[in-house]
Amino acid sequence: MLSTNPIAALFGKSPFKPMQQHMRIVCECVAEMPGLFSAVIEQDAAKLEAHKDRVFVKEGEADALKNNLRDHLPKSMMLAVDRRDLLELLAMQDAIADTAQDIAGLLVERKMEVPEGMAEPLMRFVNRCVETCEQAHKVIEELDELLEMGFRGREVDQVNAMVLELGQMESDTDVMGMALISVLFAQEDSIKPVSVVFWYQLIQWVGNLADNAEKVGDRLRLLIAR
């Protein structure tokens, strides 16, 4: 159906479509995280390598689309939103894929063994962080509807509610991450110090997936408010 919104008519080829496609690829990248950590728990090197390869492929696709969008985003044409806001939103989306790549790279480059008692809370933590990224994806999928409605009305209320839920999910991951670190530190006397450091880094990075997802939602809410 053709849009009746004059702002949308001025947009030409909306950059929102590639922004949404970029976020879809980012989420495909993040979707490999449970498989990655499951492979570590199972000590399945082949499975781990396969998930890592898919992460790297998807991160490369996200980078290519990011660069293409940056190169072709209109500079002078009147946009429904500020160009700088879109670029900042894009950078926050891309940070999620970059973090997923960092996690995958470390898990493959260094042979990691999951400390006793960490496997179950680790998988719950990873899955919740993935769910938080998926919530950010749902928010970004509302961009077209926001544009259609001129960034006003019930659609804005709906998106704000989704962003609020996103923040609550990220708070869950903060609590889960701290609990996981407590489990790790409770066993640090029986684990090699360097392994403690790497696991601490991994837990931080997994939490950063959710942190960056929340930033995506917050940036979109700020964009709407303007």
UniProtKB/TrEMBL annotation:
Top-level lineage group: Bacteria
Alphabetized SUPFAM superfamilies for the sequence: PhoU-like (SSF109755)
Pfam families membership: PhoU_div
InterPro entries: DUF47, PhoU-like_sf, Put_Phosphate_transp_reg
Official protein name in the record: TIGR00153 family protein
Family (UniProt): Belongs to the UPF0111 family.
